[in-house]
Amino acid sequence: MYPRLLQLGNFNLYTYGVLAAVGLIVGLTLIVHLAKRDGLDEENTWNLGLVCIVAGVIGAKLLLVINDWPYYSKHFREIFSLNLFQAGGVYSGALVLGTATGIAFMRWKHMPLLRTLDAFAPGVALGQGIGRLGCFAAGCCYGKPTHLPWGITFVNPLAHDTTGTPLGIPLHPTQLYEFLADIAIFALLMWLSRHRRFAGQVAGTFAFLYGIARFFIEFYRDDPERGSVFGGLMSLTQLLALLLVILGGVLWMQRGGQGARKLEVA
Protein backbone atom coordinates (compact mmCIF):
# COMPACT_ATOMS: atom_id res chain seq x y z
CA MET A 1 0.00 0.00 0.00
CA TYR A 2 1.75 3.18 1.25
CA PRO A 3 4.60 2.20 3.58
CA ARG A 4 6.23 5.64 3.47
CA LEU A 5 4.40 8.93 3.92
CA LEU A 6 7.32 11.29 3.43
CA GLN A 7 10.98 11.24 2.44
CA LEU A 8 13.30 14.23 2.87
CA GLY A 9 16.87 13.27 2.11
CA ASN A 10 17.78 10.50 4.54
CA PHE A 11 14.72 11.17 6.68
CA ASN A 12 11.80 8.80 6.20
CA LEU A 13 8.38 9.15 7.77
CA TYR A 14 6.83 5.68 7.70
CA THR A 15 3.07 5.18 7.70
CA TYR A 16 3.28 2.36 10.21
CA GLY A 17 5.06 4.53 12.75
CA VAL A 18 2.58 7.38 12.35
CA LEU A 19 -0.50 5.16 12.72
CA ALA A 20 1.06 3.22 15.59
CA ALA A 21 1.69 6.52 17.38
CA VAL A 22 -1.87 7.67 16.66
CA GLY A 23 -3.17 4.38 18.04
CA LEU A 24 -1.15 4.77 21.22
CA ILE A 25 -2.25 8.38 21.77
CA VAL A 26 -5.93 7.75 21.03
CA GLY A 27 -5.98 4.56 23.06
CA LEU A 28 -4.25 6.08 26.07
CA THR A 29 -6.48 9.17 25.97
CA LEU A 30 -9.56 6.95 26.05
CA ILE A 31 -8.08 4.86 28.86
CA VAL A 32 -7.51 7.92 31.04
CA HIS A 33 -11.03 9.15 30.29
CA LEU A 34 -12.56 5.84 31.36
CA ALA A 35 -10.32 5.63 34.41
CA LYS A 36 -11.34 9.13 35.52
CA ARG A 37 -15.01 8.26 34.96
CA ASP A 38 -14.58 5.19 37.16
CA GLY A 39 -12.91 7.12 39.97
CA LEU A 40 -9.33 5.98 39.34
CA ASP A 41 -6.33 8.25 39.82
CA GLU A 42 -5.69 10.12 36.55
CA GLU A 43 -1.95 10.68 37.03
CA ASN A 44 -1.28 7.07 37.96
CA THR A 45 -3.26 5.93 34.93
CA TRP A 46 -1.22 8.13 32.57
CA ASN A 47 2.01 6.84 34.09
CA LEU A 48 0.80 3.25 33.94
CA GLY A 49 -0.04 3.66 30.26
CA LEU A 50 3.39 5.08 29.47
CA VAL A 51 5.12 2.29 31.40
CA CYS A 52 3.09 -0.32 29.50
CA ILE A 53 3.95 1.30 26.17
CA VAL A 54 7.70 1.27 26.85
CA ALA A 55 7.58 -2.30 28.17
CA GLY A 56 5.44 -3.33 25.21
CA VAL A 57 7.92 -1.95 22.68
CA ILE A 58 10.77 -3.78 24.43
CA GLY A 59 8.74 -6.99 24.57
CA ALA A 60 7.84 -6.79 20.88
CA LYS A 61 11.48 -6.32 19.86
CA LEU A 62 12.68 -9.01 22.25
CA LEU A 63 10.29 -11.65 20.91
CA LEU A 64 11.21 -10.66 17.36
CA VAL A 65 14.87 -11.34 18.15
CA ILE A 66 14.01 -14.64 19.89
CA ASN A 67 11.89 -15.86 16.98
CA ASP A 68 14.56 -14.92 14.46
CA TRP A 69 17.54 -15.90 16.62
CA PRO A 70 19.33 -17.91 13.87
CA TYR A 71 19.75 -14.61 12.02
CA TYR A 72 20.49 -12.34 14.98
CA SER A 73 22.97 -14.81 16.50
CA LYS A 74 25.07 -14.32 13.38
CA HIS A 75 24.40 -10.56 13.15
CA PHE A 76 24.51 -9.65 16.81
CA ARG A 77 25.05 -5.94 16.20
CA GLU A 78 21.70 -5.77 14.42
CA ILE A 79 20.02 -6.18 17.82
CA PHE A 80 21.19 -2.68 18.71
CA SER A 81 20.71 -1.16 15.27
CA LEU A 82 18.23 1.38 13.94
CA ASN A 83 16.79 -1.34 11.69
CA LEU A 84 15.50 -3.30 14.69
CA PHE A 85 14.12 -0.13 16.26
CA GLN A 86 12.18 0.62 13.08
CA ALA A 87 10.89 -2.95 12.77
CA GLY A 88 7.35 -3.54 13.99
CA GLY A 89 8.20 -6.36 16.39
CA VAL A 90 5.94 -9.21 17.52
CA TYR A 91 2.71 -8.11 19.18
CA SER A 92 2.55 -11.11 21.53
CA GLY A 93 5.81 -10.02 23.13
CA ALA A 94 4.38 -6.54 23.63
CA LEU A 95 1.24 -7.96 25.22
CA VAL A 96 3.05 -10.26 27.64
CA LEU A 97 5.78 -7.88 28.85
CA GLY A 98 3.48 -4.85 28.80
CA THR A 99 0.86 -6.65 30.88
CA ALA A 100 3.36 -8.08 33.37
CA THR A 101 5.05 -4.71 33.85
CA GLY A 102 1.69 -2.99 34.15
CA ILE A 103 0.52 -5.37 36.87
CA ALA A 104 3.74 -4.78 38.79
CA PHE A 105 3.24 -1.01 38.47
CA MET A 106 -0.35 -1.28 39.69
CA ARG A 107 0.74 -3.23 42.73
CA TRP A 108 3.44 -0.67 43.46
CA LYS A 109 1.00 2.24 43.22
CA HIS A 110 -1.79 0.33 45.01
CA MET A 111 -4.16 0.66 42.07
CA PRO A 112 -7.26 -1.60 42.05
CA LEU A 113 -6.24 -4.35 39.62
CA LEU A 114 -9.51 -5.39 38.00
CA ARG A 115 -11.09 -1.94 37.77
CA THR A 116 -7.91 -0.61 36.19
CA LEU A 117 -7.81 -3.46 33.68
CA ASP A 118 -11.44 -2.75 32.84
CA ALA A 119 -10.55 0.88 32.09
CA PHE A 120 -7.64 -0.19 29.87
CA ALA A 121 -9.39 -2.85 27.78
CA PRO A 122 -11.43 -0.63 25.40
CA GLY A 123 -8.49 1.70 24.76
CA VAL A 124 -6.18 -1.21 24.05
CA ALA A 125 -8.66 -2.66 21.54
CA LEU A 126 -9.07 0.70 19.79
CA GLY A 127 -5.34 1.41 19.73
CA GLN A 128 -4.64 -2.04 18.33
CA GLY A 129 -7.17 -1.52 15.58
CA ILE A 130 -5.59 1.76 14.48
CA GLY A 131 -2.16 0.14 14.63
CA ARG A 132 -3.31 -2.65 12.32
CA LEU A 133 -4.10 -0.05 9.68
CA GLY A 134 -0.43 0.88 9.95
CA CYS A 135 0.48 -2.77 9.38
CA PHE A 136 -1.74 -2.80 6.30
CA ALA A 137 -0.08 0.34 4.94
CA ALA A 138 3.40 -1.09 5.56
CA GLY A 139 2.59 -4.53 4.20
CA CYS A 140 3.78 -6.31 7.33
CA CYS A 141 1.78 -9.05 9.12
CA TYR A 142 0.66 -10.18 5.68
CA GLY A 143 -1.55 -13.15 4.90
CA LYS A 144 -1.34 -16.28 2.79
CA PRO A 145 -2.10 -16.25 -0.94
CA THR A 146 -5.81 -16.37 -1.74
CA HIS A 147 -8.20 -16.37 -4.68
CA LEU A 148 -10.99 -14.76 -2.65
CA PRO A 149 -12.38 -11.55 -4.17
CA TRP A 150 -11.17 -9.42 -1.26
CA GLY A 151 -7.57 -10.55 -1.60
CA ILE A 152 -5.08 -7.66 -1.51
CA THR A 153 -2.15 -7.39 -3.93
CA PHE A 154 0.86 -5.42 -2.71
CA VAL A 155 3.00 -3.78 -5.41
CA ASN A 156 5.24 -1.32 -3.55
CA PRO A 157 8.89 -2.54 -3.61
CA LEU A 158 9.53 -0.78 -0.29
CA ALA A 159 7.06 -3.10 1.42
CA HIS A 160 8.99 -6.10 0.10
CA ASP A 161 12.38 -4.63 1.00
CA THR A 162 11.29 -3.66 4.51
CA THR A 163 9.11 -6.57 5.63
CA GLY A 164 9.45 -9.22 2.92
CA THR A 165 5.88 -8.73 1.71
CA PRO A 166 5.19 -10.82 -1.44
CA LEU A 167 4.42 -8.57 -4.39
CA GLY A 168 2.00 -9.15 -7.23
CA ILE A 169 0.13 -11.96 -5.43
CA PRO A 170 -3.37 -11.62 -3.91
CA LEU A 171 -3.06 -12.17 -0.16
CA HIS A 172 -5.49 -12.50 2.72
CA PRO A 173 -5.75 -8.99 4.24
CA THR A 174 -5.03 -10.32 7.71
CA GLN A 175 -4.27 -6.80 8.91
CA LEU A 176 -7.82 -5.78 8.04
CA TYR A 177 -9.24 -8.95 9.56
CA GLU A 178 -7.71 -7.98 12.87
CA PHE A 179 -8.68 -4.33 12.45
CA LEU A 180 -12.32 -5.34 12.06
CA ALA A 181 -12.09 -7.73 15.01
CA ASP A 182 -10.51 -5.04 17.20
CA ILE A 183 -13.11 -2.43 16.30
CA ALA A 184 -16.00 -4.85 16.90
CA ILE A 185 -14.52 -5.82 20.27
CA PHE A 186 -13.94 -2.16 21.11
CA ALA A 187 -17.58 -1.30 20.42
CA LEU A 188 -18.78 -4.16 22.63
CA LEU A 189 -16.38 -3.22 25.43
CA MET A 190 -17.53 0.40 25.41
CA TRP A 191 -21.12 -0.76 25.85
CA LEU A 192 -20.12 -3.28 28.50
CA SER A 193 -18.09 -0.71 30.44
CA ARG A 194 -21.37 1.08 31.23
CA HIS A 195 -23.27 -2.08 32.08
CA ARG A 196 -20.69 -4.28 33.81
CA ARG A 197 -21.86 -6.32 36.77
CA PHE A 198 -18.50 -7.04 38.35
CA ALA A 199 -14.91 -5.82 38.30
CA GLY A 200 -12.91 -7.63 35.63
CA GLN A 201 -15.87 -8.25 33.34
CA VAL A 202 -14.67 -5.83 30.64
CA ALA A 203 -11.05 -7.02 30.76
CA GLY A 204 -12.15 -10.66 30.79
CA THR A 205 -14.36 -10.10 27.76
CA PHE A 206 -11.50 -8.44 25.90
CA ALA A 207 -9.06 -11.26 26.69
CA PHE A 208 -11.56 -13.95 25.72
CA LEU A 209 -12.76 -12.41 22.45
CA TYR A 210 -9.39 -11.11 21.28
CA GLY A 211 -7.78 -14.45 22.07
CA ILE A 212 -10.34 -16.28 19.93
CA ALA A 213 -10.05 -13.78 17.07
CA ARG A 214 -6.26 -13.81 17.05
CA PHE A 215 -6.09 -17.61 17.26
CA PHE A 216 -8.12 -18.05 14.06
CA ILE A 217 -6.57 -15.11 12.20
CA GLU A 218 -3.20 -16.77 12.71
CA PHE A 219 -4.22 -19.57 10.35
CA TYR A 220 -4.27 -17.01 7.54
CA ARG A 221 -0.99 -15.27 8.43
CA ASP A 222 2.07 -16.03 6.32
CA ASP A 223 4.82 -13.84 7.76
CA PRO A 224 7.45 -15.97 9.53
CA GLU A 225 8.24 -13.87 12.61
CA ARG A 226 5.89 -15.34 15.26
CA GLY A 227 7.71 -18.58 16.07
CA SER A 228 6.17 -22.02 16.54
CA VAL A 229 5.56 -24.46 19.39
CA PHE A 230 4.77 -28.16 19.78
CA GLY A 231 6.72 -29.13 16.70
CA GLY A 232 5.02 -26.58 14.50
CA LEU A 233 1.49 -27.56 15.56
CA MET A 234 0.71 -23.92 16.25
CA SER A 235 2.44 -20.56 16.35
CA LEU A 236 3.67 -19.05 19.60
CA THR A 237 1.10 -16.32 19.07
CA GLN A 238 -1.68 -18.92 18.94
CA LEU A 239 -0.48 -20.40 22.22
CA LEU A 240 -0.58 -16.98 23.84
CA ALA A 241 -4.02 -16.40 22.32
CA LEU A 242 -5.28 -19.59 23.98
CA LEU A 243 -3.84 -18.40 27.29
CA LEU A 244 -5.76 -15.15 26.82
CA VAL A 245 -8.98 -17.10 26.29
CA ILE A 246 -8.33 -19.03 29.52
CA LEU A 247 -7.55 -15.80 31.39
CA GLY A 248 -10.75 -14.22 30.12
CA GLY A 249 -12.71 -17.24 31.26
CA VAL A 250 -11.13 -17.10 34.71
CA LEU A 251 -12.04 -13.42 35.10
CA TRP A 252 -15.61 -14.15 34.08
CA MET A 253 -15.87 -17.04 36.53
CA GLN A 254 -15.04 -14.61 39.33
CA ARG A 255 -18.44 -12.97 38.65
CA GLY A 256 -17.91 -10.37 41.33
CA GLY A 257 -17.64 -12.98 44.04
CA GLN A 258 -15.16 -13.26 46.86
CA GLY A 259 -12.27 -13.96 44.49
CA ALA A 260 -12.91 -10.78 42.49
CA ARG A 261 -13.19 -8.68 45.64
CA LYS A 262 -9.88 -10.00 46.90
CA LEU A 263 -8.18 -9.10 43.62
CA GLU A 264 -9.59 -5.59 43.90
CA VAL A 265 -7.72 -4.99 47.14
CA ALA A 266 -4.48 -3.32 46.06
The side-by-side strand order for the widest beta sheet comes to 1-2
Helix content: 55-70%
Tally of helical runs: 11
Give the termini distance in whole angstroms: 46 Å
Sheet with the most strands? 2 strands, antiparallel
Question: Into how many domains do the coordinates divide?
Answer: 1
Beta strand %: 5-15%
Written as H for each helix and E for each strand, in order along the chain, the element string is EEHHHHHHEHEHHEEHH
Note the overall shape.
globular
Overall pLDDT, averaged? 86
Kindly name the structural category: mainly alpha
What's the alpha carbon Rg, rounded to whole Å? Answer: 19 Å
**Number of strand segments:** 6
Characterization of the model:
It is built from 11 helices and 6 strands. The chain has 266 residues and is mostly helical. The protein has one domain (4-264). A two-stranded antiparallel sheet has the order 1-2. A two-stranded antiparallel ribbon has the order 3-4. It has a two-stranded antiparallel ribbon with strand order 5-6. A hairpin with a 4-residue loop joins strand 5 and strand 6. The longest helix has 26 residues, at 42-67. The termini are far apart.
